[in-house]
Design brief:
Length: about 160
């Protein structure tokens, strides 16, 4: 028969082990990084250049934001005129590929988008778009395609 001291020691070891396991598991999740580095964060679309006409549309009053975290990009319209959209993305140091857009509707289930015109207010030209990253430093990001250049400021 085990003594009370032995039972207490085993109980303490078990409790300490459980606490350490939880702490290690939790801390590993907290230090996980997305690898997006400077891209992660909230970006406000401030201007769109149309390269063929050399015209610029000021977008700063439109309140359009790109929210980047891990492998999801949320296209957000704070005016409420357009429904928020989620996109998957991949990026390298020189390119950003957006694809697989969905309406952001957690209550009713996110539904895929097949009408590219719903993406236009956010500066996105197609259901899959590849941007060249011209600038991504500090609070400035500039992305371009063969027809448009998007200017952002980090919030």
């Amino acid at each position: 028969m085990k003594s009370n001291k032995t039972k207490y020691t085993i109980s303490c070891i078990f409790t300490i082990s459980a606490v350490l396991f939880c702490a290690i598991s939790h801390s590993c999740g907290l230090i996980e990084t997305s690898g997006n580095k400077k891209l992660d964060g909230q970006w406000q679309l401030t201007a769109i250049d149309t390269l063929s006409t050399e015209g610029t549309t000021n977008m700063s009053e439109e309140k359009i934001y790109w929210l980047v975290e891990n492998n999801l990009l949320e296209l957000e319209d704070l005016t409420g005129r357009n429904q928020n959209i989620l996109c998957r993305f991949e990026h390298t140091t020189s390119a950003l590929r957006l694809y697989d857009p969905y309406f952001y509707d957690r209550d009713n289930g996110d539904s895929p988008i097949d009408d590219v015109q719903l993406l236009y207010p956010f500066g996105v030209e197609d259901l899959e778009t590849i941007y060249t990253i011209e600038i991504l430093k500090g609070s400035k990001m500039v992305l371009s395609t063969s027809t448009r250049r998007l200017h952002f400021r980090k919030i």
